[in-house]
Design brief:
two-stranded parallel ribbon, about 55% helix, binds NADP nicotinamide-adenine-dinucleotide phosphate
Length: about 260
């Protein structure tokens, strides 16, 4: 996820590469990221904490406690600390950094890598309006951004953090269907992925309700409505809602 964010920030020239210092657990990851993005690296998290005005913690949720213990005495007092982990809430962060800390709790997603990310975030009281605008610019450099109330943050992974995984499954299934009908595999992925991309753009750019757009594809008595009926019979929408509920439950159970 960190690499997706770095790639997006660099591509959009939000920061030059020499303003980014990364750390990881292993030197091999640091070297790989350095070779890919020409950013500096260190294996010492404390050095990153001392360096950063915006400190992004991109480790797995269960590592937040140990990394925060490591860096809490070393970070710049005025730095903005950005979390991207499911289940790491502001209260958890206050326990390590104090209630005066400037914290952004965010949930990005991996399409950030191609500049089409979706990041939702909330913030602690101390973050100023100017800093919020700066953080919006940061997230906007690799996609869209949405501020939400903190009580909704636990539900963001299911809708946009994790949902690319379900969309890939949908695209894979569409492509399998095409291959079954004799369409070459490469063409099938292109046809399926572009259809999904175009449909998503129609929602964002026309502002029309998804149901209206669906109706516009369904000729009365035609083939599309037969496909829609088959999806309803197989509980397509119910399956998505169940998947999201499972995702929510897991995220809440993993809460720090
Ligand atoms: N993947 C997603 O789609 C997604 C979406 C939204 C949010 N997130 C959040 O993003 C976070 C990272 O997820 P990910 O999928 O990017 O995981 P990941 O690929 O496993 O990356 C985690 C990175 O943390 C590094 N690391 C481990 N221990 C460390 C330590 N003590 N100090 C410094 N760095 C350390 C690892 O370094 P090494 O490579 O050297 O081991 C690795 O590069 C998670 O909290 C997740 O909830 C992920």
């Amino acid at each position: 996820m960190a690499q997706a964010m770095i790639a997006g920030m660099l591509r959009a020239s939000f920061v030059p590469c020499d303003h980014i210092l990364v750390s990881a657990k292993t030197e091999s990851t640091c070297k790989l990221v350095h070779d890919r993005y020409q950013v500096s690296y260190t294996l010492d998290n404390k050095k990153v904490a001392q360096f950063a005005d915006i400190l992004i913690l991109a480790v797995k949720p269960h590592l937040y406690a140990s990394v925060l213990e490591e860096i809490k005495q070393n970070r710049k007092n005025a730095s903005i600390v950005v979390t991207i982990a499911a289940g790491v809430d502001l209260e958890f962060m206050y326990n390590y950094l104090g209630e005066e800390a400037k914290i952004i709790r965010s949930m990005p997603n991996t399409p950030s890598l191609v500049g089409e990310g979706m990041t939702a975030f909330c913030h602690s009281k101390q973050v100023t309006k100017e800093e919020i605008e700066c953080i919006k610019d940061l997230f906007s450099s690799f996609g869209s951004v949405q501020t939400v109330e903190e009580k909704l943050m636990d539900y963001i992974p299911a809708i946009s953090g994790s949902s690319p995984a379900y969309v890939y499954m949908f695209i894979e299934a569409l492509a399998d269907g095409g291959v079954r009908s004799g369409i070459p595999r490469d063409a099938a992925y292109k046809l399926a992925a572009q259809a999904v991309l175009g449909a998503a753009k129609m929602i964002l750019e026309t502002g029309k309700h998804p149901g209206t757009l669906k109706d516009e594809v369904c000729t009365p008595g035609g083939a599309t409505i037969e496909a829609v009926a088959a999806l309803e019979e197989h509980k397509f929408r119910g399956a998505i809602l169940s998947a999201m509920e499972a995702c929510d439950q897991k995220n809440i159970a993993m809460k720090r």
